[in-house]
């Protein structure tokens, strides 16, 4: 024990609790970055021959897809930085610049490019609808968060950006639904639902994964927001 500690008359029970280490954030960052590396693996360096989606030799379509993925990667990395509490508390200026990069170099261009990429998607109308709804919510929550920050409504800003980052992550977490959905769909391969139609099965897995990922992520985001609100209530 140090001399200062022995001379300090304040009892240990009266001292403020040590700040919690954000282990949940470390786990989220590790899992998210692992998924991001997997997604980028086929597109870095850009080569249409290694694309996971069939581009039918269309270089323009491939270029838009790669740009969308690239801006989405920027949104993912900068979004994780935005969640880090020490950055916001001890480096507020860096936090603000990271937030600007998140929206203007990540979310906004990725969402705009998602529109033609989605319209070219070949996994069915339900999948296209899910992706377009995701894109709309992505833009709407981002704009709402930006507006709240400019009006200095910082509690609202944080809530909107939690929702927005949940949508950002939904583009990655949809892959996590692939395994469970494959088990369900392929168990019905020879049933009257599919009658061996592999294309219909793939379309259903893609659309269900997109809808489930968006819905689950937004539910988790709302739970986090409500928990933060209750903890800060007098």
TrEMBL record:
The chain crosses the membrane at residues 23-42, 62-81, 102-121, 127-146, 167-188, 208-225. Keywords: Membrane, Transmembrane, Transmembrane helix. InterPro entries: DUF2306_membrane. It comes from the Bacteria. This is DUF2306 domain-containing protein. It comes from Nocardia vermiculata. The lineage of its organism: Bacteria, Bacillati, Actinomycetota, Actinomycetes, Mycobacteriales.
């Amino acid at each position: 024990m140090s001399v200062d500690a022995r001379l300090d008359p304040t009892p240990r029970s009266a001292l403020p609790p040590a700040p919690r280490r954000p282990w949940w954030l470390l786990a989220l960052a590790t899992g998210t970055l692992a998924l991001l590396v997997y997604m980028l693996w086929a597109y870095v360096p850009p080569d249409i021959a290694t694309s996971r989606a069939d581009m039918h030799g269309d270089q323009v379509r491939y270029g838009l897809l790669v740009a969308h993925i690239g801006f989405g990667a920027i949104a993912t990395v900068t979004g994780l930085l935005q969640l880090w509490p020490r950055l916001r508390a001890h480096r507020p200026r860096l936090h603000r610049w990271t937030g600007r990069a998140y929206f203007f170099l990540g979310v906004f261009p990725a969402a705009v490019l998602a529109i033609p990429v989605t319209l070219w998607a070949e996994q069915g109308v339900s999948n296209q609808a899910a992706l377009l709804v995701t894109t709309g919510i992505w833009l709407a929550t981002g704009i709402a968060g930006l507006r709240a920050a400019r009006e200095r409504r910082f509690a609202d800003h944080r809530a909107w950006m939690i929702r927005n980052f949940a949508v950002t992550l939904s583009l990655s977490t949809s892959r996590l639904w692939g395994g469970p959905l494959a088990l369900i769909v392929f168990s019905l391969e020879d049933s009257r639902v599919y009658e061996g139609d592999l294309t219909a099965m793939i379309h259903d897995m893609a659309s269900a994964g997109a809808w489930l990922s968006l819905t689950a992520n937004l539910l988790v985001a709302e739970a986090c927001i409500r928990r933060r609100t209750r903890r800060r209530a007098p």
